[in-house]
Amino acid sequence: MIKHQLLTAALLLTAAASPAQSSSSWNNKQCAVVLTYDDAIDVDLDNVVPALDSFKLRGTFYLIGSSPVVARRLPEWRSAAQRGHELGNHALMHPCDGSLPGRGFVTPDNDLSKYTVSRAVSEVRANNVLLSAIDGKTARTFAYPCGDLTIGGVRFYDQLQNDFVAARGVRAGLQTAPQVDLTNINSYMINGQSGDYLIDLVKQAEKSHTLLVFLFHGVGGGHALNVDLQAHRQLLRYLKNHEKDIWVAPMVEVAANIKAAQPGVPATPLR
């Protein structure tokens, strides 16, 4: 009960933080929802893109440049970008900090704790070159592999801020536009939750005039972190049915809107 009361109070405080200002940042709607999909896996193209296209919704796909699914299905990724989906940068090799607990899956070659900052930056920039060759765009966003921000205590993204509109992290939370940290945007990682849970998050965002970012991996299989196809489709149907109140757009567009509203920060041309 106490936990529920604290959550309600937090949402009310967030809603009180300039709803008109947030509404203008959300394309004059009540809230913004960004659908992000990590790791460049087959189900992105087999399940997710067709589902999004069927509802005329657009998402952000964070691609690992070294993924065989990128190499094998380049024309399909290019076609998805041409239909308005964002191809985001999830690093060339998806390095994660293997020194942290529970990171037995990290190989020595891809252990971020053994990287130098310059190596991490170079690999991310190399992936940008690859992505630009696929979609012809220069404006895009980044997603931290495993949500890891630092190498030896140094935030490597500090050297990449001019390369991206924004970066997405893995910390959960709803935020109004002025509260959003464009170097580490909040997101809700989804793994097995129901369609009702997903829709309830959207309803909270509507009430509090905030940004809601979903972080998906597998959709209908294909990854250890997974959401049921029906639950995902239930979410898309709700978003489509309430599109007069909810702005659903790729991360690069939403982040550019937030950035444009920040004083002293030049707008980023979306090309």
Q: How much helix, percentage-wise, in residues?
A: 25-40%
- Which percent band covers the strand fraction? 5-15%
- From the 3D structure, determine the CATH topology: TIM Barrel
Question: What is the string of helix and strand elements?
Answer: HHEHEHHEHEEEEEHEEEHEH
The overall pLDDT, averaged over residues, is: 92
Named CATH architecture: Alpha-Beta Barrel
Signal peptide: 1-22
Organism: Hymenobacter lucidus
Domain NodB homology: 31-249
InterPro entries: Glyco_hydro/deAcase_b/a-brl, NODB_dom, Polysacch_Deacetylase
Task: Describe the secondary structure blueprint for this structure.
Layout: H1 2-15, H2 19-25, E1 31-38, H3 42-54, E2 60-63, H4 68-72, H5 74-82, E3 86-89, H6 117-135, E4 142-143, E5 150-151, E6 154-155, E7 167-168, E8 188-189, H7 195-208, E9 211-216, E10 218-219, E11 226-227, H8 229-241, E12 246-248, H9 251-261
Parallel strand pairs: 1-2, 1-9, 1-12, 2-3, 4-7, 8-9, 10-11
Antiparallel strand pairs: 5-6
Structural description of this entry:
The chain contains nine helices and twelve strands. With 271 residues, it is an alpha/beta fold. The chain has one domain (18-261): TIM Barrel, CATH 3.20.20. Strands 1, 2, 3, 8, 9 and 12 form a six-stranded parallel β-sheet that branches. Strands 4-7 form a two-stranded parallel ribbon. The chain starts with a helix and ends in a 10-residue tail after the last helix. Residues 1-17 have low confidence and may be disordered.
